[in-house]
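Possible race condition, two jobs.
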Amino acid sequence: MPAAAPTLREHGGDGTAADPGHPLRARFRGGRAALLAVALFLCVRALSLAALTVRAAETGRSPRVLLSERWDSLWYTRVAEHGYAFTLNAPDGRSLSSMAFFPLLPWLERGTRAVTGLSLPAAGLLVTTLASVLAAWAVHLVVRHSYGDRAGVVCVVLWAAVPVGIVQSMAYSEALFTALAAWGLLCVLRERWVAAGVLASLAGLTRPVGLAVTAALFLAVWLRHRPGTGTGTAAPARARAVLGCLVAPVGAAAYILWVGSRRGHLLGYLDVQDEWGNGFDGGWAFARFLTGGSAALAVLALAALLLLAYWPHHIGAKQLQPPPLIAYSALVTLLAIGASGYFGSKPRLLLPAFPLLIPLAVVLARRRPALTWTALTALATASAVYGAYWLTGSGPP
């Protein structure tokens, strides 16, 4: 009987077979690949910042202000400086509360200022810079776990070169959240349940979508320990899995319950979001926005959005992408598309959904190096130019 063909997971993303007989050599190669991934990530970020500096000079703007003292970054520094006592009365009569912003980034900004003496905006940039590097490192390790070093490196560059990649260099929470989520997912894949639960809880203190990391952990634990799998599990391992699952939702739940206590009822956080115009309608408002308000066209647009969201997950499943990664990116994508808030936010809300890039990374990793790096260079250049014009224009909300 012929041997079964090796799966992609049994080979590196570059098509080379694994070398289980030389673990130290494999670890050394993996370390070099991780350094390469982080170095290339920093190159893409430097290119983006250079383009922003040139464009800002042309328009008489300050790159530092654009990156750390506008939009959401101002709200995070307000929380770091004043706590959650700030409310903005909007011209349309709404009361916009700072409680819409989760606390981990402001806490880190305040702690960084205390240690370094930097201003809060500068502290936010430092936190974001370090978090983005940690995120790139973790993205490489997550992809490498199933597809090999080359695919991991390519995926990091793709993530750095997405059109709104400049947000990775802003005093926003996306870089911090992606770092916590990616390291949490890596712990899930390695079955380090308690560490995964702690990281999921911290992700939940960063953004409400942190619950997607919790969902990925729950799914992985269920797949590993469900009855009928035929794999015996020692009691200590089961206990660690249960503990990880108990810890994972604590961060988000604690903050939401705290807001509820401040607002006088359990679901007070939903009231805060509603005042900001945020909610979840499955993407209906977004589809109507894209089609100019036409209900008939909105139905078609919503169907197209759902198909576009489904396609990379379908390809990922065919490429043997681990189910927890698919669950995580699917939830992040669903919440981003289905939110009824400001529509200009959606590209950056998708930034943490890096598993969406894995199918393309695997394809590019298998191509000739000249083609791969030409494509990545073109994408990075386009991202840098787009980000520079985006931030000096309307920019992110």
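Job #2 (started ~2 s after job #1):
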Amino acid sequence: MSEKSMRAGLSRGKALLAVVGGILVLVLAQVIASLIYLLPFPHTVSIVLYYLLYIALAYLGVKLLSERMLKLSLQECRIHRPRAAARWLLCAVTLPVAVSAILLCLPGEFIPGNMDGGETALIIVTAIVGTGLSAGIVEEMIFRGILMKSLELQWGKTVAIWVPSVIFGLIHAIGAGLNAADLLLLFVGGTSVGIMFSLIVYRSGSIWSSAIVHAVWNMVMIGDILHIGTKPVEHVILSYRLTSDSTLLTGGNFGVELSAAAIAGYWSVIAVILYLSKKRSTQPLNVPTSLR
């Protein structure tokens, strides 16, 4: 189906409903998957089953929205079979490692978590399967798959990049108990990381490239294997407690994902993508097959 045909077949009302529907899929998949905890499985098994069920339910919801409401295949929403080019795997590792290295240069102290073997294994499994893969896959399918495609068809790529990115940032404020300064930082940092993920998808032609970057970022930065922050946290393998009282350096009450180092990391990736796209001016950003 051509881009023109897609636009003609999607009304503004349906585009907006797809945006709302995507958010509802995110919420309902979590709620329904959480019912697994009512069954008498061992705790570790329940956690793994919850995240796998969360991914499966979200996929089914996204497929339903794509094919029934948008009248598009998953592939047309850039939700292909899992794959990611080596450059995005490199980006996925380099970004959180570089940001963590900068944060570890700030004044602070290492504090061991004193976890036993079982607790350590649970933290690692949760970081990989839950904090990493499930969040990365589901959020990218919804925000950079359904939301971005529906908005793109009605209002173009600029709106498709900015609106899901703003929503992606602000949705993380729910229940976080942030003050005005934290909310402003969340708007800047959350929107920045959303733009980064969006450009990765446009550059690569697939949500899987942003999903792997998203997943590895979560594993390293918020997976509780190495926790970096200003407040002591229980149930971590190792923590680095920052002693700086600068909200800009530490990310405030939300955490180091909104720190100056993290935001600089997001915009470094954005700058590289824009530079490469400008350099390859004969292969525009909106032709995914030439950019894989």
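The CA atoms of residues 4 and 143 lie 22 Å apart.
Logs attached separately.
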